[in-house]
Amino acid sequence: MVPNGCRILDQLGFYEPFFNSTIPLEEVFDRDNNGKPLAPGSDFAQLQTARTGYQLSFGDRRALLQIMYDGIRDKKKIQLNKKLIDVIHSDDGVTANCGDGTTYKGDVLLGADGVYSKTREAVWDLAAKERPEVVRKDRQALTAEYQCLFGVCMMAKGVRIGDGEYGYDHGRSSLVVCCKEGRTYYFIFQKMDKAYRGTGFPHYSKEETEEFAKAHFDMKIRPGVNFEALWKNTIAANLVVLEEGTFDIWTHGRIALVGDSIHKMTPNVGYGGNTAIESAAALASTIKEMLDEGYPSESQIRERFLTYQNARQQRTNQMVRVSADVTRIQAMQKLKIMSHLIPYLGDTLADLQAEMVVGATAINYLPIPRRSVAKVNMPYNPTQGDGMKESKLKRFALALPFLFLCFSAAKLMAPDPMIPWATSILETNKLPWTDAPLPTTFYRLEWLDNALAPIVVFFSPVLLDISNISYQALLFLSDYGLILAIWLIESARRANTFTPAQLPLLFTLSSQFIGVGVISPLYYLLHYTLSPIEKFKAADMRLTRIAYTKSILPAVILTYQMPLYLSFFTPRFEDRVAWNFFWQLYPLWLSPVASHLFFRLFDDTTKHDRIHNVTRDLKTIRTTIGLLSAQSALFWVYTIVKSNFSFSTLAAEILPPLHSPQTAPDLVTFAGEFLRFDQAFLFGSTLLWLGYLFWDTKHAGMLSMGWGKILGYAVVSLVALGPAATVGLGFLWREEILATRRHWAAMTEDKARERNRELGYEWDESGKAVRVGKEKGGKTGGKK
């Protein structure tokens, strides 16, 4: 049982007794075909509990069925051994004929009769006249490429209670979970020599089951533990073919299907039964809503059943696909490199399950359990998760203004005019503005010095303060340190895993040779496209690696700001040039210092924090961005005072010129204009990026403030504190929003309490929902 199914069991009062009958997973291992762990044991089960409020637990299906049966008040409604033989559909009802001669007539027929559903056959027969091509396609939709030996045994020596073991092998895989009192569940998956489609799926005898088991005796569960040891302690086992498939027809007229009859998936991630529970809850809710509006006609029934299908189909189809992919990955038939990547995947499995869980449905006429909303890091949200993800193509299209800024900056800031001036200076090794020689070597690596020398030539008018351009350059480059800190924070954020935002070195290093005004819009384009607000559905996804985040401020000061200031303020020109050579490669110093040197000075509590303290890094982020923003604001205020509050003088200090660097008559003018355009494109694109991020939070209902007020604050901050401090304050504001507010559709504790009251329920002190008044809307109307 996983969280999406557990919440529904909890609504029905079955979760506690089931949970008490088993134990939760504690640690999960991915192992190679020798039983050796591919990575340290994962606590993703605890992470899922922190996110959803529910444990991931294994138990006997018959035990769960017994618990559910015991909870049924009128057991006379349960009729056993009723094999469906025929279905008769008419305008006023539907009749089910059973193998024992009994007949049942009703308003609707709901088929939850499994992968070889007789009800589905009846639906196909009825729909064939209207949709023959779709029926033909559905009749071939079921496939099978794998077989599986399911078994229950007593714990073998070397297997630990509470552990889950995933085994990867070529063409086969395994899953072993040891639970309460050593009761162990195993699954041995094998790719078959032949793939099946539509019909003719094999069934296996007891002898074939034993042959299959013996053929896999050598499979390593853990070092020193073969599958043979589990087979010897087996209580029950069954070899089956693993059917897979999704169907386009879920309903026809008064008949609707649910569970494996419409979405059959492999069991590697444990979502088949839980998804069936979800679909049953959705169908029950659909019928309840339909009856609350009065007794329905056949057309209304048909319409409601189609609504049920449309609401569920995209999500269930995605679950079938994900389950199929995991089966093939673990059998090393797809993405074979994955077994080598597992040590670097972190919480990928937990995040995969989060995508499958967060959008789960519940029974909408029963109260929401307090356990599912109280102190959870990931509230359920029907607008998020698999099948509901925001289109990356749409986000890319919305972010095209960044691409325009990138191309514009590249055109305006092209280095072509500088090339002849720099070549002439490097050939003579003399600057036209000073008698001091220009050092052209520093690292004693010819290729590296040759690559950096033209950039140093570009900066030489700045270092000599020719035409008073030194202060403007210093103001810009000092403010750039704040942007670097923001990029580094984003690189450490869990939501940005496996996105380009994790590679600040790529963007900062290319910025040194092309211009940050060209590169920054590209960074923001990729960030906005690949990091939508839905990535923050779990509060721990906002969290950054705490030790790395603590290292950012000292690393920026040591490797970026100190060399920068020394290259401006060291007395001798030759020394300023030397420090400039060193500063040019700050990206190479910044990342290693932050990642390895300072990182080791701090305790990295991220693994604990993502479960128990998802806001631990907030204080560090506030301090880092706050101090750098204060520094930028002081520079800005000093600039205003220095200009004697003259707008024309201030504009000459901070605003880009009206003409392009491409028309500059000399290197000094080119350098000054280039840096001012570089500054304008950097902070212009950064402010635009923040605007996009705030639009995301507003669209998600996490920020209700109007655009007029937001823009008003931005303008006041720009005038009073400058662009860099405004960016810093905006970034911190967004951080607080992500840390403290939830999506408009998230089922938070307050929203669940309000919903329960509408249904006539309140939570008591133990968290149990108790009825306190009449259900909203009164009694159900019409015939039932």
Q: Give the low-pLDDT segments.
A: 776-784
Number of strands: 17
By DSSP (H or I, 4+ residues per run), the number of helices equals 29
**Beta content:** 5-15%
> For the largest beta sheet, what order do the strands appear in spatially?
1-7-8-9-6-12-15
Separation of termini? 32 Å
What is the overall silhouette?
Answer: elongated
Helix content: 40-55%
Secondary-structure class = alpha+beta
Q: What is the residue-mean pLDDT, rounded to a whole number?
A: 92
Radius of gyration, in Å, reads: 32 Å
The biggest beta sheet reads: 7 strands, mixed
Transmembrane segments: 447-464, 471-489, 501-526, 547-569, 581-602, 623-641, 710-733
InterPro entries: FAD-bd, FAD/NAD-bd_sf, FAD_mOase_fung
GO molecular function: FAD binding; monooxygenase activity
Keywords: FAD, Flavoprotein, Membrane, Oxidoreductase, Transmembrane, Transmembrane helix
Write a structural description.
By secondary structure, this protein is an alpha+beta fold. The protein has a domain of 281 residues. The protein contains 29 helices and 17 strands. The strands form five sheets. The chain has a seven-stranded mixed sheet with strand order 1-7-8-9-6-12-15. Helix 17 runs parallel beside helix 28. The chain is elongated and about 110 Å long. InterPro entries: FAD-bd (IPR002938), FAD/NAD-bd_sf (IPR036188), FAD_mOase_fung (IPR050562). Belongs to the paxM FAD-dependent monooxygenase family. Keywords: FAD, Flavoprotein, Membrane, Oxidoreductase, Transmembrane, Transmembrane helix. This is FAD-binding domain-containing protein. Its cofactor is FAD.
